[in-house]
TrEMBL record:
SUPFAM superfamilies: PLP-binding barrel. Belongs to the pyridoxal phosphate-binding protein YggS/PROSC family. This is Pyridoxal phosphate homeostasis protein. NCBIfam families: YggS family pyridoxal phosphate-dependent enzyme. Residues 18-249 form the Alanine racemase N-terminal domain. CDD domains: PLPDE_III_YBL036c_like (cd00635). The keyword tRNA-binding does not apply. It comes from the Bacteria. Pyridoxal 5'-phosphate (PLP)-binding protein, which is involved in PLP homeostasis. The modification N6-(pyridoxal phosphate)lysine is found at residue 44.
Length: 252
């Protein structure tokens, strides 16, 4: 990072930024009876040394969106008690790698990926057994929903997320796959849309999912710019990057 910092050290900076985000989460109005959401700190593009500092500041949940980067950091920091959350678009051929370190995948958006994750989990448990390692826990799966309208989708069909009408079958697929645990839903508020409207819709979809799958209680929603709206609409998991770590370095 070449930006000039007003902080004496990176640890001071991360402590201060993290505290501000925690204060915002506490100050945001929650629905009646809702617990405080889990904070996942999104560390993509930032070095493992920052994750190490964050762990020292009490962070237990970190989010990454690229397998190669995440796998390297998780290996570097294997001595720390961290849960790694995979939040980016995931190619099926990366499933095998992701299940070696990830506690959850927030971007489950198609049947073929569910199949790949199920196979990868089975292979991973066999690997652990053959190497005398303890079995890992089930992989928590969040169904990522595309909340954009038809027009935006037609203009840019390549983006991640299942269509809302495809959620029931996708949920059945996850629930019926050994090694996978259906946690709930995930979404990113569409660009230019009102985040509150988007997260209200996500909460409705979560309620529909829970009617069929009572254990699928989780709602992963909310980034740096819209965490208050997410908390107000019942988010259980927030994915916060830049407000904790600072502006991301330009993509190389
Ligand atoms: C990068 C990213 C985030 C964090 O975004 P910030 O605006 O930096 O807080 C959250 N969710 C997803 C899916 C991301 O890719």
């Amino acid at each position: 990072m070449t930006s000039i910092s007003e902080y004496p050290s990176r640890t001071d900076e991360l402590r201060d930024r993290l505290q501000r985000v925690r204060n915002r989460i506490q100050a945001a109005g929650r629905p009646a009876g809702a617990d405080e959401p889990h904070l996942i700190v999104v560390t993509k593009y930032f070095p493992a040394s920052d994750v190490d500092i964050l762990a020292g500041l009490g962070v237990r949940d970190v989010g990454e969106n690229k397998d190669q980067e995440a796998a390297a950091k998780a290996a570097d920091l294997a001595h720390l008690d961290l849960d790694w959350h995979f939040i980016g678009q995931l190619q099926s051929n990366k499933a095998k790698s992701v299940v070696r370190y990830a506690a959850s995948v927030h971007s489950v958006d198609r049947r073929s990926l569910v199949t790949a994750l199920g196979k990868a989990m089975a292979a991973e448990q066999r690997r652990r057994e053959s190497e005398g390692l303890a079995a890992r826990g089930d992989l928590s799966c969040f169904l990522q929903v595309d909340l954009r309208g038809d027009a935006a989708r037609a203009a840019d069909p390549g983006r991640g997320g299942a269509q809302p009408e495809d959620l029931p079958l996708l949920a059945e697929a996850v629930a019926g796959t050994p090694g996978l645990l259906l946690s709930g839903v995930m979404a990113v508020a569409p660009l230019g849309a009102d985040a509150g409207d988007a997260f209200a819709r996500l909460r409705e979809l979560s309620a529909q999912l829970q009617a069929q799958h009572p254990g699928a209680l989780s709602i992963s929603a909310g980034m740096s710019s819209d965490l208050e709206a997410a908390v107000a609409h019942g988010a259980t998991h927030l994915r916060i990057g830049s407000d904790v770590l600072g502006p991301r370095p330009p993509v190389r």
